[in-house]
Fold:
Amino acid sequence: MPKFNIIFNNKNYKIRSNTYILLLHDSICNLSYLNNNSIIKKYINTIEILEKKIKEKISFYKFKTLHNRNHLPLGTSIHIVYNNLKIIYSPKMWIKQDISNTNNTYWSVLSGLTLIYKNCKSKDNIDILILDDNTVDSSDQYIKAYNDFNKNIANNNYLDKYYHSDDNNIHIGEFSINEQPPLLQNNEFRELSN
Structure:
């Protein structure tokens, strides 16, 4: 089994062949927050092209909002290869908003780790570079997701519990709809209760 090394927003990190980039943001895939990210800008000249590629991949899976827009559900992650970079996109919120009272980051990271595990063929170490807009301090959720991931692997129950698809480009995980803030904008993703 490979060993995962987590790197979080480290500006001095050099991406290697054993690196997966875990991008965390919104369900619609707005990547403008990466325009000022010095790490990713070394490897990708135009963030808009990466965003377009991820949106194309999202549209392939046909998840639709209540307004019929393509999106990637919370707790779900997808894998693409772009400019020889192995990228996992895993939304932590429906749209940009305060998610400090949710476990969304936990589910997003756990889903991303699961998809990386499904895709890595190597028994060697795997670097996972997490690029997050870090609008809220979620370090405890990163740690909990990583620890729970390792526990499930060690107990040999990981595959049965978390694998929902034979498609190695997507992992459909979990999250709680009830934790999501009752914002009017979120009505696009779920019916607001009366």
Notes: Helices lie at 38-41, 47-60, 104-119, 139-154, 158-162. DSSP finds five helices and six strands in the chain.
